[in-house]
Amino acid sequence: AAPPPPGGNVALAGASVAAGVALFAATKLGVGDHPAATLATLEARAVPFDTALANGRPSLLEFYADWCAECREMAPTVAVAEDAYDRDVNFVMINVDNPQWYGELDEYGVDGIPHFSFLAADDTEKARMVGVMPEEAFKANIRALKDGADSLPYSRRLPGAGADATAAATLADAPPSTPDAGADPRAHG
After folding, report:
1. Does some domain include residue 91?
2. pTM as predicted
3. Same domain, residue pair 80 and 107
4. CA separation for the pair 128, 131 (Å, rounded)
5. Is 181 a catalytic residue?
6. Are 14 and 43 contained in the same domain?
7. Is residue 180 part of a domain?
8. How far is CA 178 from CA 13, 87, 91, 181, 182, in A?
9. Domain contains 188
């Protein structure tokens, strides 16, 4: 057998590294989804809170702050879900730093951000979640909300909600996520 041409292995190794970097970027950085989505863009396209409560559609309330790293991390995931479901579900952004919303912070039990409250079409809160969640789990919850499901697949059930009020969190079954291992959604940035 003839020896490989000089530099052939180097070119192959370089191409392999480039392909690996491209694959990582496409799967972890949201390439092709909404890598540039920000809280400001989500807020600009959000349905006003009062409109959401009056239009007869289910709603996702996101309580956030501009300085919250986890809120910024979730922005591309929320943008993808909004693109898929904005005709059927209201996406509402509520900035926790605005005193106008202090009553809603209490009403929806906001004790960490990002906090997501999932409201049925009749405005009753079906479930809530706090922190970063995998895109697949987030979209599954929005899809179930849109479909009027009795419960959401990846959420903490609220007391008195649905047929089984004692159900615990089901996030253990959620698809894996790769958030920063040291990140704490209650650390606020």
Report:
1. yes
2. 0.68
3. yes
4. 10
5. no
6. no
7. no
8. 27, 30, 24, 8, 11
9. no
* Claim to verify: residue 19 and residue 101 sit in the same structural domain: no
Residues 2 and 64 in one domain: no
Active-site annotation holder among 42, 52, 65, 71: 71
Residue 158 counted as domain residue: yes
Number of H helices, E strands in the chain: 6, 5
Please state, in angstroms and as integers, the Cα–Cα distance from residue 120 to each residue in 117, 136, 153, 176, following that order: 10, 20, 15, 27
- Identify whether 68 is a catalytic site residue: yes
Q: Which of 60, 68, 81, 94 is catalytic?
A: 68
3-state SS assignment for residue 117:
strand
Give the dihedral sign, CA 28/77/80/177.
Answer: positive
CA-nearest of 187, 52, 175 to 130 is: 187
Using DSSP's 3-state secondary structure scheme, residue 163 falls into: coil
Give pLDDT tens digits for 63-91: 999 999 999 999 999 999 999 999 999 99
Q: Alpha-carbon distance 54 to 137, whole Å?
A: 27
Q: Per residue in 144-184, pLDDT tens?
A: 999 999 999 987 656 554 433 333 344 445 555 444 545 55
Q: Are residues 120 and 61 in the same domain?
A: yes
Q: Which domain holds residue 123?
A: 39-173
